[in-house]
């Protein structure tokens, strides 16, 4: 009985000590009033890497926290997860405003950058290992963040999203918006897409984020052409040209499109995969350099 009680106490203590998603207020400049959640694992690494994880339309911080297995990888690898949350536009990210599409100008992008700065300072994070990932509207915003803030992100992974500035000129970026030109596969030349990125931060000559672009071939909400357009864009920006396709990578119905040697730009197209493409945490974290 005594042993049982001791075990019970130890077990309860372990539960009580487990990290959980926390809301953070007052994280800095936040022109559009978005919200911040953070997941700091119990055994956080020294100089931890940071991943910004962006929810889809209609989502929120807690929803996306349970939407992928990234938190359990944070537990085993010691990185920190930031879950931004937008309450605007049916909880879709501001991927269309000139403010988000211009370095240092505002929009949801500026609030997200404040969350990164806050986390780097509060947890002594590694500024050279800050990453961004997201699905659907969050995938669109991943490309926006990589385009507007190239100096902040080492790499990004966009699932079922659209190219940086694809929604520029549209009044909003929701599935209910009358203007679906972008999501239906708006096409530009690689140079035009590249210029949209370069014009978001005129004069910037530093390194650019490495990118992974994922899309289901059977996606009708955000067409797979959107991924081809994003790959044209990053191919131009990074100066990496298409090398080859590898079928069955990482598995089953997926085909990996390699650009250059694949270390800076990779596409993934899922045969028969719809809008809700499953997040492949292993392939994402390997690309980020967090898993070997
Ligand atoms: C988001 O909502 C807040 C509060 O209503 C508003 O001040 C802000 O301008 C909105 N941002 C966008 C991008 O719509
Ligand atoms: C619709 O959105 C696209 C960008 O996605 C933009 O180029 C175009 O001007 C918009 N059209 C209207 C009528 O707002
Ligand atoms: C590579 O694979 C993608 C997705 O299946 C396909 O759209 C593209 O045409 C392929 N490219 C080549 C050169 O085979």
Automatic annotation (TrEMBL):
<keyword id="KW-0378">Hydrolase</keyword>
<dbReference type="InterPro" id="IPR050955">
    <property type="entry name" value="Plant_Biomass_Hydrol_Est"/>
</dbReference>
<dbReference type="GO" id="GO:0052689">
    <property type="term" value="F:carboxylic ester hydrolase activity"/>
</dbReference>
<keyword id="KW-0964">Secreted</keyword>
<dbReference type="InterPro" id="IPR029058">
    <property type="entry name" value="AB_hydrolase_fold"/>
</dbReference>
<keyword id="KW-0119">Carbohydrate metabolism</keyword>
<dbReference type="GO" id="GO:0045493">
    <property type="term" value="P:xylan catabolic process"/>
</dbReference>
<dbReference type="Pfam" id="PF10503">
    <property type="entry name" value="Esterase_PHB"/>
</dbReference>
<keyword id="KW-0624">Polysaccharide degradation</keyword>
<comment type="function">
    <text>Esterase involved in the hydrolysis of xylan, a major structural heterogeneous polysaccharide found in plant biomass representing the second most abundant polysaccharide in the biosphere, after cellulose.</text>
</comment>
<dbReference type="InterPro" id="IPR010126">
    <property type="entry name" value="Esterase_phb"/>
</dbReference>
<keyword id="KW-0732">Signal</keyword>
<dbReference type="GO" id="GO:0005576">
    <property type="term" value="C:extracellular region"/>
</dbReference>
<keyword id="KW-0325">Glycoprotein</keyword>
<keyword id="KW-0719">Serine esterase</keyword>
<protein>
    <recommendedName>
        <fullName>Carboxylic ester hydrolase</fullName>
        <ecNumber>3.1.1.-</ecNumber>
    </recommendedName>
</protein>
<comment type="similarity">
    <text>Belongs to the carbohydrate esterase 1 (CE1) family.</text>
</comment>
<feature type="signal peptide">
    <location>
        <begin position="1"/>
        <end position="18"/>
    </location>
</feature>
């Amino acid at each position: 009985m005594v042993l049982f009680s001791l075990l019970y106490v130890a077990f309860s203590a372990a539960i009580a000590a487990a990290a959980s998603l926390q809301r953070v207020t007052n994280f800095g400049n936040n022109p559009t009033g978005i919200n911040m959640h953070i997941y700091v694992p119990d055994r956080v690494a020294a100089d931890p890497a940071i991943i910004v994880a962006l929810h889809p339309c209609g989502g929120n911080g807690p929803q996306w926290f349970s939407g992928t297995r990234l938190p359990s990888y944070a537990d085993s690898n010691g990185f920190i997860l930031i879950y931004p949350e937008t309450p605007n536009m049916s909880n879709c990210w501001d991927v269309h405003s000139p403010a988000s599409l211009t370095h240092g100008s505002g929009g949801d992008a500026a609030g997200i950058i404040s969350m990164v700065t806050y986390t780097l300072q509060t947890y002594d994070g590694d500024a050279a290992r800050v990453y961004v990932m997201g699905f659907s509207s969050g995938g669109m915003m991943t490309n926006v963040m990589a385009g507007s803030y190239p100096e902040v992100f080492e790499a990004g992974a966009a699932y079922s999203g659209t190219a940086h500035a694809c929604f520029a000129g549209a009044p909003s970026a929701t599935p209910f918006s009358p203007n679906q030109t972008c999501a239906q596969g708006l096409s530009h030349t690689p140079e035009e897409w590249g210029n949209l990125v370069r014009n978001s931060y005129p004069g910037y000559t530093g390194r650019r984020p490495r990118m992974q672009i994922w899309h289901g071939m059977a996606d009708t909400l955000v067409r797979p052409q959107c991924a081809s357009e994003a790959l044209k864009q990053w191919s131009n920006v990074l100066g990496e040209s298409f090398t080859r396709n590898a079928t069955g990578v990482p598995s089953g119905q997926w085909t990996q499109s390699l650009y250059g040697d694949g270390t800076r730009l990779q596409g993934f197209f899922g045969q028969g995969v719809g809008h809700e493409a499953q997040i492949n945490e292993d392939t994402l974290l390997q690309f980020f350099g967090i898993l070997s």
